[in-house]
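The data layer described in this paper is built around a simple, fixed record for each protein. We quote a single record here, exactly as it is kept in our systems:
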Amino acid sequence: MSYVFTPPPAVSLLVRGQDDRFPVHRVYCVGRNYAEHAIEMGHDPDKEPPFFFQKNPDNLIVPDLNFPYPPQSNDVHHEIEMVVALHKGGTDIPVDEAMDCVYGYGVSLDMTRRDLQGEMKKLGRPWEIGKAFEKSAPCGEIVPASDIGHPENGAIWLKVNGEMRQEGDLNQMIWKVPEMISYLSGLFELAPGDIIMSGTPAGVGPVQRGDVMHGHIDGIGELVVNVV
């Protein structure tokens, strides 16, 4: 097969303990999936079904790459999240079968141009310019569930320059992993290589050039990213 120009290489993530990499198909993000974060963003977590937005696969950056402060924004926020990586997909997946789709887990950041996202919210427009910009999704290595199981609780936190900013526990997620997969599969046909960024705890806030972000999830790993 020939192309009118050379296609970009496939986006993939490191896998702990393996030479093979995890190829990424789509990136789904769950909005306001921790109650305290929903409250800090001005919403009532008891009244909302899950909702999703997307980033692009090539928004992902792997460890040891810097996060470049993006243009057209003066208010860029960090959001620490657990990644759920799928090796099976389908539609209308029952909750009790959803975990069969999970290959592994990772630590990620959903970087957000909060000022631009806020403008879009006021206008009732999509969030892409606030969420899906270049290198907006730093992501650590994927850790196979065959090695660590399926974490249902454990600390999730983010420090900026050594100062704790976000702190929570995986058990505080409103929509748990199997529920997310099942609900999402009713809206989209999930596929091997899809990843789900599962929401962020309270404490989101701005970063500046020169900051160092240090994220951690118990049992999964760490992620250190420099803002440049």
Q: What stands out?
A: The chain has one domain: 12-226. The mean pLDDT is 93.
